[in-house]
Amino acid sequence: MFHQPTNRRRFLHASGGGALAIGIGSSLPNCFLQAAESASSDEDRILVVVQLTGGNDGLNTVIPYADDAYRAARTTLAVPRSEVLAIDDHVGFHPSLRGMKDLLEDGQVAVVQGVGYENPNRSHFESMDIWHSCVRKDQPRTDGWIGRALEQFTGADGGDVPALHLGQQQQPFALASETIRVPTVKQLEAFQLRGSDSAALRRLLNAPLTPAVEQSGDDLLGFLQSSTQGAISASQRVTAAAQDYQSDIDYPQSQLGEQLRLVAQLISAGMRTRVYYLQLDGFDTHAQQGDTHAILLRQWSDAVSAFLGDMKARDHSDRVCVMTFSEFGRRVAENASAGTDHGAAGPMFLCGGGLNTGLIGKPPRLDDLEQGDLKHSVDFRSVYASVLKDWLGTDPDQVLRGHYETLPLFAKS
User: Fold this and answer.
1) What Rg value do the Cα atoms of the chain yield, rounded?
2) Less packed terminus of the chain by CB within 10 Å, N or C?
3) Which of 366, 4, 42, 14 is nearest to 225 (CA)?
4) 3-class SS at 128?
5) pLDDT of res. 234
6) Helix (H, G, I), strand (E, B) or coil at 155
7) Of 75-84, 238-247, 271-280, where does mean pLDDT reach its minimum?
8) How far apart, in whole angstroms, are the C-alpha atoms of residue 40 and residue 222?
């Protein structure tokens, strides 16, 4: 997460001997209460981003089970045709994606096929930077696409952060912004004021800035003083939600399941946060891919399906969209270690109640490869453009620094 050059000792002294603590991760909340930013016409819509880190094998996620070339290229890793969860006569889901298949039958999944970009980079770091920033390394990359989107929203009252990153990982560059600070939250308790913090914050609210603070540019103290009432209000809502939250949905006992349950709690608390960002690691499956990939896909599918079931039960499904991506797919042919190496194009997934569901775009061709990799037919920035324009209600050209055609992903209201 972002850090500002605030003198922590001087801040604690000014705030009353160190009694103040707002726990977001393990550092002071230099960004905890950035005012909520919302597009006026779509301010109730929420985007949940799930990043599959490591390069998900899209070919064994959405499987071309009717293509003989698939089994010829993967004598060990090909999923038996009898186990594939058929979507149509040509492709189907991996058998671990039972939850995703149920969501599809319920009209809550859009699968965008063959997503990638020109001249694909097979480095984890560089390709992820391209997905996060939407530009190549020879262009300036000071912020991410979501960070730029947050800057486009008009201000709104309420004191809630415009975006949250949940998890133990380093904050994704997609959230970087020159003006908006996005916090990283590791657990629900970290979003709540502890003990007598409310009283300490109220004292801070009424305390004038000292000349030393003003002259030093110590904007953390000034920010908290200007935003304390919002902090108390937000924390009280979250605390109440944690105490009162009950769900008949059985979330999976996985880190992603717990994180999505937290997102459900925050949404149920009335938080006006627009974007939640989560990560599921482990998809760099160079060796013995079969079992590992099956477990990861099940974790993702079960967690997302539980979350959307919860949202539907609470009448939120039409305002929540879960977008899943990975930095690249895997090569078509398996390697000598019963795994797959870094590839190029792969599927993206959007899940929720406001979608045009089913398969979007052309399926990748296994008889027309580029250096052993699937060719992309959809630029990932077209997916972003569709989400920005048709879901979040902002101008995608400014955010993406270029024009990309949108896709028919969302049902028109």
Assistant:
1) 22
2) C
3) 14
4) helix
5) 58
6) strand
7) 238-247
8) 28
